[in-house]
Specification:
Distance between the termini: 90 Å
Radius of gyration: 30 Å
Number of helices: 6
Shape: flat
Largest sheet: 2 strands, antiparallel
Low-confidence stretches: none
Strand content: 5-15%
Number of strands: 2
Structural class: mainly alpha
Oligomer: single chain
Amino acid sequence: MAENQKSSRDSHGRWVKGVSGNPKGRPKKYSKIDHGDFARFMNTIREVNTPEGRIMMTREAAIQHRLYQSAMQGNVHAQIFLSRQLEQSKRNKADIMERYDGLFFRLKEEMRGPTELEALWIAQVQRLLHEVPDPNEIKEALRRLKRESRRKAKRKDGDWDPKS
């Protein structure tokens, strides 16, 4: 091994041209992330304090909830971050729609049905673009509508109580 070191240096002890003194290169700035551990961490269920009370949610959902709350309370950095994310989301949706429309145009032009892979992609895009609302939001909206209709009915009957 001493012979290899001597042959890689010149008579003045400097490295010969084309030979590196650091063969493995610069050390990495960050350690490698185990994405399995990261996914498990983000999907861990935690109990979180919210204005509505204590709610069970994943860590990822808790982080997003906190970000939205912070933005709504006036944190400019959170607002800028969310604004950029929303713009990126719009660009991504526009790109997906362009590809989606292009696929249908190509299928019509070639007068054929979609392949199995194309049909799978179409189904995924349709689920993505036609976002289904959260069932809890639907339930809450129905409760509000029922409450409001009861109030309107009481007003018509003449025995309306402003506290109800």
